[in-house]
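TICKET: design request
STATUS: open
ATTACHED STRUCTURE:
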């Protein structure tokens, strides 16, 4: 029979030079064919999308056997082999028939007639195993081929090999080394169970590959940090911080200053948690959407971007369904809005905790320490939360042109899975200061599967560089942050070493817009490069792991439905003020109180602030006379409050329990 040569599957512009003759076995009666010294042909031009010869790993020419039809040449390969042999043979004969028929296939016969199949060109995700995945009649039997010895070859109807993209699309990461799909003529239940058993036993006998040594991290508790809660110094943010950082307001166009603060409680004066609300203008257009936190507090914003001014004369608040729950909202300069809803006390909820981390080369001085602190926080979080299901997620990011732009780990209730993910990450790439912050935030807010049910959602954004600046990126940043607020995701930025002032400004606006707080590493640890001091009058230095844990507990712990809030995760700066306070002549009573409280001073009060547990201002009064003055917390939820009084040049802080 003549030897037929298939049409070329790739073209090369240079001539092909013969180097040897090809001879067939004499018993086949096939004439000897000698390659000519030179083959020339008029070949079509090569275009950018033409299959290139360097992309061809192997070419297989089959001289004998059943004629096959080849549909196309792609990144994956599917080959069907029908079992037509009617004579009883050892089962691996069906497997051995693959040799020489599929590019990249190796079949080796081991001792005791145990055949092994290797599909070259890929390796599994674990970096060790090279065996393909075996599937018989739709049942996945794993990667061990021992079951083939127990499979009657007469019952094999067809055997298919899947490679590359086709295999991965059908069977996921388990199919990285290819898939051997066997269809039988019908096996009994007993025969199928036997194959499963043999396959299982075979896998158990496989020697375990040596595991990579676990990444050694520094001891936790070494990094130091501070917190700036701009809600607790609202006038400072508007009057001092913003003018100092004013140039970045014009650069990034983020400027949250028209604030509407709402406190939601039920008829029993318990906080209404996880309530979706919408801020509407006088034309009932939605201006801002947010979700109440574990203290029943919601922060809403009017025109938080420069140039986006609202001319509305009146503002409304609706619930998630659109029903108006307040038609007389006031901005924060005129006080907080207290709204009573007919809602029950929440006793269980979910905490979604995400860590979004800059993994570019500039983070190399601190990333291993940060990993250690994060892992320490993960271990402690669940132990201190009752009636709460904790889910963990993460996104590591670099920049365009690096090894990757974003790498995500979607939410899981298994902390150990996130631990493994974090341990595998390292710093690299970057180098041009701005990084892929926009892309990382979009993936974190829009692609991570945040809980739809009642939940606390916290995202720690750990970085040392700003996003790339462009009009498009500004729009995408605003849209993403606004979407985070709508979903109830609190963004808590953590500024690492070498963070500049524009990044500080932008991160503080992210925190304000999502009811969060701004945190930063300090030089006190002696670790990493220099850390800039934030624009603030004063702050307390804490261990980073303690700070992160406190911020999580502040926002995740549910108040007891039968009693007041029992935890004491108070803002550290105010806690220190209470502990270091000298003997005071000021008297605050009764304490505990059911709401109405008297404050007796010998001097006139210039300013009086009431803060919630996290250090957020909920009430402000000024120019009160000396003697007795009263404040009323009746409508506020049960819990711990801080009363801060300024007389002359002295500040005094008192902890008050409201029952």
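STATUS: resolved
RESOLUTION: sequence designed for all positions
ATTACHED SEQUENCE:
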């Amino acid at each position: 029979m003549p030897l037929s040569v298939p049409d070329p599957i790739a073209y090369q512009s240079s001539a092909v030079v013969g180097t040897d003759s090809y001879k067939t076995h004499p018993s086949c009666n096939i004439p000897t064919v000698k390659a000519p010294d030179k083959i020339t042909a008029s070949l079509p031009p090569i275009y950018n999308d033409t299959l290139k010869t360097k992309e061809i790993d192997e070419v297989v020419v089959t001289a004998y056997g059943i004629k096959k039809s080849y549909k196309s040449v792609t990144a994956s390969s599917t080959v069907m082999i029908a079992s037509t042999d009617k004579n009883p043979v050892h089962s691996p004969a069906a497997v051995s028939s693959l040799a020489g028929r599929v590019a990249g296939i190796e079949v080796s016969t081991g001792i005791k007639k145990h055949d092994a199949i290797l599909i070259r060109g890929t390796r599994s995700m674990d970096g060790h195993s090279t065996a393909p995945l075996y599937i018989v009649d739709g049942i996945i039997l794993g990667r061990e081929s021992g079951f083939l010895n127990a499979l009657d070859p007469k019952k094999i109807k067809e055997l298919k090999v899947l490679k590359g993209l086709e295999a991965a699309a059908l069977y996921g990461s388990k199919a990285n080394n290819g898939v051997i799909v066997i269809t039988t003529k019908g096996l009994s239940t007993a025969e199928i169970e036997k194959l499963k058993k043999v396959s299982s036993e075979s896998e158990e006998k496989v020697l375990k590959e040596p595991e990579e040594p676990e990444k050694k991290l520094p001891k936790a508790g070494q990094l130091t940090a501070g917190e700036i809660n701009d809600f607790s110094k609202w006038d400072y943010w508007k009057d001092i911080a913003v003018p100092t950082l004013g140039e970045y307001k014009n650069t990034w166009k983020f400027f949250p200053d028209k604030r509407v603060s709402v406190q939601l409680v039920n008829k029993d004066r318990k906080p209404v948690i996880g309530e979706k609300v919408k801020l509407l203008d006088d034309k009932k257009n939605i201006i801002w959407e947010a979700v109440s936190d574990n203290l029943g507090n919601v922060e809403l914003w009017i025109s938080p971007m420069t140039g986006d001014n609202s001319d509305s004369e009146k503002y409304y608040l609706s619930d998630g369904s659109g029903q108006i729950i307040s038609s007389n909202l006031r901005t924060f300069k005129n006080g907080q809005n207290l709204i009573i809803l007919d809602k029950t006390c929440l006793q269980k909820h979910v905490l979604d905790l995400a860590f979004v981390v800059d993994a570019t080369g500039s983070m190399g001085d601190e990333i291993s320490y940060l990993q250690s602190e994060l892992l320490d926080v993960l271990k402690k979080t669940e132990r201190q939360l009752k009636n709460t299901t904790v889910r963990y997620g993460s996104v590591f990011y670099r920049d365009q042109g690096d090894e990757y732009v974003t790498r995500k780990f979607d939410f899981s209730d298994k902390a150990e899975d996130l631990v493994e993910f974090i341990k595998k990450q390292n710093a690299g790439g970057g180098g041009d200061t701005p990084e892929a912050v926009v892309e990382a935030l979009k993936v974190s807010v829009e692609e991570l599967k945040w809980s739809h049910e009642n939940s606390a959602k916290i995202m720690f954004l750990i970085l040392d560089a700003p996003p790339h600046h462009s009009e498009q990126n500004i729009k995408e940043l605003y849209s993403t942050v606004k979407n985070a607020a709508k979903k109830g995701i609190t963004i808590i930025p953590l500024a690492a070493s070498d963070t500049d002032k524009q990044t500080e400004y932008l991160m503080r606006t992210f925190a304000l817009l999502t009811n969060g707080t701004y945190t930063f590493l300090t030089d006190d640890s002696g670790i990493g490069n220099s850390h800039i001091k934030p624009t603030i009058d004063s702050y307390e230095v804490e261990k980073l792991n303690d700070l992160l844990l406190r911020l999580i507990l502040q926002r995740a712990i549910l108040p007891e439905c039968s009693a007041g809030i029992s935890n004491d995760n108070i803002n550290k700066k105010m806690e220190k003020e209470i502990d270091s306070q000298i003997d005071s002549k000021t008297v605050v009573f009764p304490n505990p109180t059911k709401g109405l409280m008297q404050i007796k001073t010998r001097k006139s009060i210039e300013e009086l602030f009431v803060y919630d547990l996290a250090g957020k201002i909920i009430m402000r009064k000024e120019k009160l006379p000396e003697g007795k003055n009263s404040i009323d917390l009746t409508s506020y939820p049960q819990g711990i409050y801080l009363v801060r009084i300024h007389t002359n040049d002295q500040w005094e802080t008192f902890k008050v329990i409201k029952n």
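CLOSING REMARK: Residues 189-205 form the longest helix (17 residues). The longest strand covers residues 349-358.
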